[in-house]
Structure formats: structure tokens, C-alpha cells
Amino acid sequence: MLKKLLSPPTIDWQGKFQQKLKVITHKVLRDYYATPLPLGNTPIGEVEFLAMDFETTGLNPDKDDIISIGTVPFNLQRIFINRAQSWTVRPREKLAEESVIIHGITHTDILDAPDLSAIFEQVLQEMAGKIIVVHCHQIERQFFETALMARINKGIEFPVVDTMALESSIQRQQYGGVWNRLKGTKPQSIRLGSSRHRYGLPAYSPHHALTDAIATAELLQAQIAHHYKATSAIDNFWQ
Amino acid sequence: MEAELNEIRYFLEQYPPFNSLPEEVIAQVSRQVEISYYRKDTPIIHFGDEIHDLYVIRSGEVEVYRRKGELYNRLDTGNLFGQMGLLTNNKVRFPVKAIEDTLVYCIPDDVFQQLYEQHDVFADFVEVADNARLRQAVSNSNNQNDLTTSKVRTLLTREAATIDKNESIQNAAVMMARDNVSSLLVIDPTVLEDEDDNSPLMGIITDRDLCTRVLAEGIDPSCDVGSVVTTEVISLDHNAYVYEAMLIMLRYNVHHLPIFKGSNPIGIIEATDIVRYESQSSLLIVSSIFQQQSLEELALIASQVKDSFVRLVHEDANSHMVGSAMSVIGRSFKQRILELAEEKYGPPPVPYCFLALGSMGRDEQLVVTDQDNAIILDETFNKALHDDYFANLAKFVCDGLNQCGYTYCTGDIMATNPTWRMTRKEWEACFADWIDDPNPKALLNASIFFDLDGVYGKLKWAEQLNGFIVRRARKNNRFLACLARNALNRTPPLGFFKDFVMEKDGRHNNSINLKSRGTAPLADLIRVHALAVGSRARNSFERLDDIIDASILPKGRAQDLRDAMEFISMVRIRHQALDVEEGIEADNNIEPENLSDFERRNLKDAFQILSNGQNFLKFRYQANNQFK
User: Fold this and answer.
1) What is the CA radius of gyration of chain B?
2) Is B320 in the same domain as B450?
3) Is the CB of B32 inside 8 Å of chain A's CB atoms?
4) Which residues of B161-175 are buried (b: 16+ CB within 10 A; e: fewer)?
5) A8 lies in a domain?
6) With contacts defined as CB-CB under 8 Å, which chain B residues touch A217?
7) Would an 8 Å CB–CB cutoff place A70 in contact with chain B?
8) Structural domain includes residue B588
9) pLDDT digits (tens, 9 = 90+) for B236-277
10) Least CB–CB distance from B4: residue in A210, A221, A222
11) Residues B353 and B382 placed together within one structural domain of the fold
């Protein structure tokens, strides 16, 4: 209970979306904010999620840009691969050699790819009405925000369940506290691959947007199965 | 934009049945899956629930249960479940639980049905009945086998050459030389064919007969050919298979086999005709066994037996052929050693019959085998006068067999044991006692006596004793119940999991003895049914033929037993052949890591059939029941 009081108040995403509708005029964004979200007290077992992952040219949202996006809708029972989507987009800046090595996306792939402005409507349609699930929300949030600002001069806000934040709090509960510090037990890595390994999930080759989105969806299913109840309200998880 | 799903595609490509599907089909399937995670110890599908997906295990482990909660199977990465429900009425028949954290790929029903209809490899793999899959596995391997699928008539190139019995021996030789044949059928034109099996065919004469019976004996070539003819003709029906011809030649050590269509000879096949089909090794070994003059020489020949075994396996012989060929070779060793024994100790003081028991009696001998034998003595046998002779003879034979690789019987069921040298009456009394007053303990080691075959001497006595046993056992419920109970002592395992043999209680073992856990309990089970129907056959496959004819088993069960016997035997045989080739001591133990996926799956099915068969045996043969 104490923990609950000390933790930041849950965000009223319903109210936030209503506010946005009053001030936003951009058609695509209006459509996005107009789609109703599940209420904060909806059990997570009934929520429709969208796992999402961006691959970017680097880690600085101001300098770097998105090069691919993968999304896959899911709930706690199933991950719907037949509705998975992925897009490759052309970044504003030239692609650096080192990120080619990481993503396996080459200059020629990018050359034929559209600009984000041509496809962000499709991405928002996928996101509409669903709770976004990412591993490390800062990347997706900041990059999407900056990328849209650069193109339509408007940012975007969306409710997120962050499997990395979730894993971090699970690790704190299991390994935090004085006792564990005395024993020398330390929280373990909360990176996607290491977290998955703890739940018996298979190793996937990283840095592919759709594969990482699927990997994130699987991780959330595993985290909930091990540490939470399907009846807990979604507002305990979103941020 | 079409999503790239390499992780799923590359995964499916590695495992059957997907690994046999075209690339584009796998890509299409991988776009249709749904993924689901199950924490350790949570149920995945419940009995009776609706099922609309085929489940592929991506990672983790699950257990499959029967309706009553009995463990049915344990599966891990790459294995499938749910196919039975999808192929029947979309109801879960075998509930499944995750026993480790498990990630599954769910392939929707419509995709499954499409794969099932369009791809035979897929349909074959997920086929409902285990026994159907096993039958298919057995028949697929048979199809590739020339020896078992070719009929002897395909070997005939010309009509049988015949000669009148009143022609001269000289003319017979002229005819052979002119027609370039090595044998002639001898006809007696005065005999007409009638219903009493009389036939104008009098016998056969071969080029070897001209040497041994004419030249060597100094007989005048102008004599009638009828005077030197072999009248006991070993022949074969034209519908017989090539391997049967081979086995008959081996068994009777003849090189010419007249082939009959009805009562008419339509040709003669020679050993050389078969050599094209079968490496001559087993034929040659048998004839060379009879040319050896000492135990030492025989022991040298024995080292070639394993090579000939390996060659037979490579030629896709089935288990009946391998078993028969090895038994014939074993029998030949025995016969030759007995001849040598009689040379050493002189002719027997009273007539006797030397018996083979157990696997040799059943024509199911392989390369790893011990000797089980016994002697039937004439009624005039007088212990004080004659026992020394037979003790010496038995010791010579058993020692000789041991030298030739047929190790001593650990249960001391050998002719060297005075208990197993009895007169005909004593043997009958012994069997009568076993049958009329059965007790499981006494019968425990006696079952191999019910697979007896004469090898040397008065072969007819073995046949008569066998007839006595069959008549006596057939209607004796208490005896059959007792034998049935003993047949349940050795049970098969449940199947395999990773590199372990999985037992019914979930325990794991590192290896399995395919004889004691597979073929031996199957032979035990088949023997009970065979005795119940009064079959005089000893070979398990031939016994099954009689069991099928008597239709005492529910439809299809005997055929299932045959498939199970064939499959387990062949795995055992193939692995022994591999051991021989690698120069290691062949045994009956198999380590699961050396089994192919195909073998694992089908062995599991075969074990299941054995297990079902044992349950049926328990139910059918109860001491107080009347059998119908």
C-alpha cells in the first residue's frame, strides 16, 4: 500500500486524449486521438496491445532518425503474426556505416524507401485504440515525437507499457532491499535478450524491428504469467 | 508492407514435417502463426475443449496425457501436438501441460487443413492413428526391397528342360551340354496326373549328381537316368518371392529349385540366378560350412557371418529374411559340428534328434545370440550304457558352437545339461507336466522350449513333439493364462525424450535393450495366441498368419503386431549392423541419441502396440475363462 502511495499517480490517458482532441487540427492525429482507449480499470487480460519497435540510425533523437518500424498486435493469450506489419523508411540524414552493420538494412534498401510522412498515418492506424508495448519506451516515444515534429510540426503522445521498466521493478522486488545488498545479490540485466532468457524464451537475432516487436510481446506475456494477475487493471502498467 | 518473419520461418524449416515442405509454403505458414507463452506447470489444452490450432513447440517442454491422466508423451522444441483433435472433431483428445516455461507457435485450423490436403508428407506425418503411421513406415521400407517384392517367376528365363526316365545318363549329359543347363526334370510318362497328388514328374538330376552319383560311383553312363534321379524334389510355387527361394536353398542346401504353377513345373531357378539379387555371402557361407574339416576352420568361417549379416541389411532384407538367413547359418554350424562329433565319437549308439530352441527355433536369430539346445533320445536309450556318448557329443557341440560365436546359454538350457537329454516319452511327460499343472515360476524360463525345431538326426521327432505340445496346450486355459502372465513380465518403455528413454512413470534411462523390451515380449505375446489357436508355426510372423486366420484378435490387431515386430526388429538389426561396421561389439542396446527422428516416432508407435497387446492378453487369458 505504501508502495502504491509513493509511486507516481497513474496517468489519466482518457482525459489526456480528450484534451488533445480539443486543440489538434491535423486530420491523421485527430483520428488517432478520437479512437477510444480502454478504461484505466480494464483488466490487462482483456486489453488489446500493440508491440512496437523502431530501428534508428543512432541513439540521439535530435540527430538520428527512424529507419524501420515493426508492429504486432497481441493480447495475453495470443500474438497475431498474421496482422504484423513492418515498414522501412528513409531517414533525413545519410545512413552511417556502423548502423548498416547493426540493422542489416543497406543503403539501397533505404534508397527506395518512402519518407516517414508517407506512412505514419498507417502506423497511427495500427496504434489507434491499442496500448503500445515497447522495451525501453524512451526510444520509441522520443524518436516518434521528434520525427513527427520535423515533418508535421506536431508531436505525439501515447500510452505505453514498457517491458524494460516492468523487468526493472521485478528485479528490484526480487533483488532489492538491504538483505539482498548484504548477501551481495544484484539485480540482473534487463536488456531484452537477457530478460527473455530468464523466462525461458528463445534467443532471436536482435536489431530487426519486427523481430524485436514480437520478442517484446512474448516477453510481456511471460512477465504477466510469472509475476502478475490477468485481472490487474491496465492503469497499474501504463505510463 | 509484407512483414519479414525470418525467425519463425528458419525455425519451422528445421523440423519435420515442415522441413519437407516447399520454401514458399513455409514462408506462407510462418505469416499465419499465432504465438503464445505458457508458464511452467500451466495447462495448455484441456481434455474435451475445442481446439482450432496445431501447436508447434518453439521452446520449452510439455507433457501429453491420456484422458485418465496417464502420461502419454513428453515433447520439446520442434515437436507438434493437437493434430489428433484437428483431424477428428476439433475436440482435445490428449490434454497437454507445460512442464517448463514454454513458447508455442499456433498454426490455425484452416492453414492446417490446407497443408493436410495439399501436401502428402504433411498429411502422412500428422496422420491420426499411430499404427497407421507404423504400417506406412514398414511398407515404405519394403517397397524399396527387390528381394521381398520380386516373385520367383520373374527369374525364369526358359522352360524347364525335361527328360524321359528311360533315356540314358549319357543322353542327359548331352542334353545339359547342348541346352547349357545344369539340371533336368526327369519324367515318368507312365504315371498320369490325378487327384492323389500323383504326377509324371519323377525327380531332378543335376550336373553335380552326374559327378557324385555316376562318375564317383562308377556307374555305366548307358544306364537309365531314372536310376540316379533325386526323387525328393524341393520345389516352390511360382508366386513365391525371391527371398523365399533363397531361404529354401539355404535351408535344404540345394542349388536348383523347380518352380511350379499348380502341378506343372514351369522352370528351374538356380542359385546363380539369385546371386544377382543377393550377395552370395549367406549362400556361400552355408555351403562352405559343410566343407570345413575342424572346429578351428569353422571358427574362421564364423567371422564372416557378421559381414554377411551386414550385407543382407544393406540389401534391404526384411527382418524375416535376416532372421531366417542367420538361423539357417546357425543351424548349418550345428549340423556340421554334429557331423564332426560323430566322426570323433563314432556313430550314435541309439538314434537321437538334436534340437534348436528359442530364436533359432523361431528362425529369428541375429548376430548377437547364445545357444539354446537339447536332445531327444530314442526309447531304447539306456543311461548306464549310452549316457557317456551323448554327454561327450553334447559337450563337443556346445563347446564348438561357443567357439563359433554362439555363446553358452547362461540359463544352462543346453544339451550338456543332463536334464535336457530325454527320451521321446520323457519329453512328452515333461511338456504334459508344464501344460497340465502350470506354475508361473516353472514356466518362466521354459517358454523357449515351446519354440523348438529339429536340427540334426531324427527331425521327425521334433515335429511330432511339437504336434503333441500344440494339441495339449490349445484347450488348456490355466496353462495359457499362466503363459500369458509370464508374457507380461517385460514391458516396453513409453518412448523417447531428448536423449533419454522415457518410462511409463516418467523416469529416464540412457539406453534401451530392444530385445528384452521389444522383440522378446512381442514374441512371448505372439506365442500365447499361437498356442491358443493350435498353430504349429514357430516363426512369429508365421504364427501371426495363423492367428489372423483364426481371427481371435479384434480386426487389424494382429497386423499391427506384425508391423510392430517388423519395425522393432529392423531397428535392432540396423543398429547391430552399424556396430559391426564400426568394429564395435554389437549388442541389443540402443542409445536414443543414435536414433533418427523417424525411428523414434515409429518405435514409440510400436511400443504402444506392444503395450496395448499386453493389456489385451491380460484380459483375454484368464484361468477361469472359456476362450471362444
Assistant:
1) 29
2) yes
3) yes
4) bebbbebebebbbeb
5) no
6) 35
7) yes
8) yes
9) 887 777 777 877 887 777 888 898 887 788 888 888 777 655
10) A210
11) yes
Residue A2 forms part of a structural domain: no
Q: Is B37 on the interface with A (CB under 8 A)?
A: yes
Per the domain annotation, does A9 fall within a domain? no
C-alpha cell at position A158:
501515447
Contact A77 B36 (CB under 8 A): yes
pLDDT digits (tens, 9 = 90+) for B147-178: 555 677 777 777 888 899 999 999 999 999 88
| Whether residues B15 and B87 fall in one domain | yes
B572 with B518: CB under 8 angstroms? yes
| Inter-chain residue contact A81 with B8, CB threshold 8 Å | yes
Question: Do B268 and B296 have their domain in common?
Answer: no
Do B177 and B285 belong together in one domain?
Answer: no
Residues of chain A contacting residue B38, judged by C-beta atoms under 8 Å apart: 225
Chain A contact present for B14, CB below 8 A: no
How many domains does chain B divide into? 4
Q: 3-class DSSP state for residue B344? A: helix
Q: Over the stretch A44-79, which tens digit does the pLDDT of each residue have?
A: 999 999 999 998 888 888 888 888 999 999 999 999
Domain count, chain A: 1
Q: What is the CATH number of the domain that holds B156?
A: 3.10.580.10
Domain that holds residue B587: 483-620
Closest CA to A75 of A191, A199, A230: A230
On whether residue B1 sits in a domain, the answer given is: no
Q: What is the largest CA-CA distance in chain B?
A: 99
CATH number of the domain encompassing residue A94: 3.30.420.10
DSSP per-residue string spanning B158-219: SPPPEEETTSBHHHHHHHHHHHT-SEEEEE-TTS---TTS--SEEEEEEHHHIIIIIITTT-
Task: Find the domain containing A220 and state its range.
Answer: 17-228
Interface test with A, best of B9, B37, B44 (most A CBs within 10 A): B37
Complex ipTM, two decimals? 0.87
| Residues B159, B117 share a domain | no
Scan residues 44-83 of B and list those with Cβ closer than 8 Å to A.
Answer: 58-60
Q: Rounded CA gap, B422 and B428, in Å?
A: 9
Q: H or E element: which one contains A119?
A: helix A116-127
Distance to chain B for A19, nearest Cα, Å: 33
CATH at residue B100: 2.60.120.10
